[in-house]
């Protein structure tokens, strides 16, 4: 008997669940008890894959619950699912319709399941996300200082001090969590050995990209969203563009690459070679992001620290 594929449309308050082979849609509450009941039902079905549409974070607890039960779960971009629905001729959009479409999408496209994240990794990921949020607030407050009145500058400076103190505390927690896990500590140390890679970049890769070192260069680039996709038709050659991927990883990789094109000899040489060929700076920078990621992936896979002659795979 073929194991079913289950699709879940996630909302703030409810979870619409469909099977690829059924018209019926089941509904659970998106709370602790609802997610537990849904997970029990999923396990009883013996599903080969559960496909969950990314929904601004409302899906995180459910994905964690299912993954904790060793259930294969794929988190997919809503744009891909919507394109699939249009290809099927499904133009209407409701939560129940979406649940069935997501299930059929999973059965047809077979998206890759996420690497299981244990409780410690989820906590590390949450801590890094919170630090990222505070850094954004800090940047905004510093920008407001330029136009604030004297009275408001005092208030803003007080908030800036609070933000800086909390960011430092979160960074200590991140460092302690990584050092407490030998696998994370080794991966982070290895990644940090590359010029241009700092502690936060290494920590983000450990938390948000556990697949690092386990996939080939094409798959890791596509997973992060730095693989260019062709847009050709007949004799027309369109611009290659990157799409999708993990935004948190791509953001820190972008900042690391800005540093690498100045301080990392391999990436710096590659960047200027692309510019001499007439590539736009943005195109060259994206190519460098991909090359740096591929190098880091190879380093973790082979268990080697930064070594220019052997850490510059073709891309």
Tell me about this structure.
It is a single chain. This protein is α/β, with parallel strands linked by helices and 315 residues long. It has three domains: 105 residues, Nucleotidyltransferase, domain 5; 58 residues; 104 residues, no CATH class. Helix content is 59%, strand content 10%. The chain is built from twelve helices and seven strands. The strands form two sheets. Strands 3-2-1-4-5 form a five-stranded mixed β-sheet. Strand 6 and strand 7 form a beta hairpin. Helix 10 packs across helix 11. The radius of gyration is 22 Å and the shape is globular.
Would you spell out the secondary-structure blueprint of this structure?
Layout: E1 5-10, E2 14-19, E3 25-29, H1 32-45, E4 49-53, H2 60-68, E5 73-76, H3 78-88, H4 95-109, H5 119-144, H6 150-179, H7 182-192, H8 199-208, H9 217-224, E6 232-233, E7 236-237, H10 247-263, H11 265-276, H12 281-302
Parallel strand pairs: 1-4, 4-5
Antiparallel strand pairs: 1-2, 2-3, 6-7
Which features does this protein show?
single chain, 10% strand, 315 residues, five-stranded mixed β-sheet, Nucleotidyltransferase, domain 5, alpha/beta
Short overview:
With 315 residues, the chain is α/β, with parallel strands linked by helices. Helix content is 59%, strand content 10%. A hairpin with a 5-residue loop joins strand 2 (14-19) and strand 3.
């Amino acid at each position: 008997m073929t194991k079913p594929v289950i699709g879940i449309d996630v909302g703030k308050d409810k979870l619409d669940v469909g099977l690829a082979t059924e018209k019926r849609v089941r509904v659970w509450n998106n709370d602790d008890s609802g997610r537990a009941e849904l997970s029990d039902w999923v396990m009883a079905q013996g599903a080969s894959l559960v496909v969950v549409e990314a929904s601004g974070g409302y899906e995180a607890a459910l994905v964690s619950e299912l993954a904790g039960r060793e259930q294969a779960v794929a988190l997919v971009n809503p744009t891909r699912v919507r394109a699939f629905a249009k290809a099927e001729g499904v133009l209407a959009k409701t939560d129940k319709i979406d649940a069935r479409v997501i299930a059929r999408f999973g059965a047809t496209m077979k998206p890759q399941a996420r690497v299981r994240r244990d409780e410690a990794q989820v906590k590390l990921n949450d801590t890094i996300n919170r630090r990222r949020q505070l850094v954004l607030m800090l940047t905004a407050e510093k920008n407001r200082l330029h136009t604030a009145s004297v009275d408001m500058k005092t208030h803003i400076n007080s908030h800036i001090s609070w933000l800086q103190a909390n960011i430092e505390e979160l960074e200590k927690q991140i460092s302690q969590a990584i050092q407490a896990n030998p696998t994370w500590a080794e991966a982070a140390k290895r990644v940090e050995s590359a010029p241009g890679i700092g502690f936060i970049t290494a920590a983000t890769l450990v938390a948000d990209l556990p697949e690092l070192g386990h996939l080939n260069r094409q798959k890791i680039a596509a997973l992060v969203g730095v693989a260019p996709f062709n847009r050709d038709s007949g004799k027309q050659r369109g611009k290659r563009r990157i799409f999708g991927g993990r935004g948190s990883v791509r953001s820190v990789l972008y900042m690391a690459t800005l540093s690498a094109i100045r301080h990392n000899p391999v990436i710096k040489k590659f960047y200027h070679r692309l510019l001499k060929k007439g590539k736009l700076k943005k195109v060259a920078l994206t190519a460098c992001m991909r090359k740096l990621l591929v190098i880091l992936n190879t380093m973790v896979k082979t268990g080697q620290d930064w070594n220019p002659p052997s850490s510059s795979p073709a891309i």
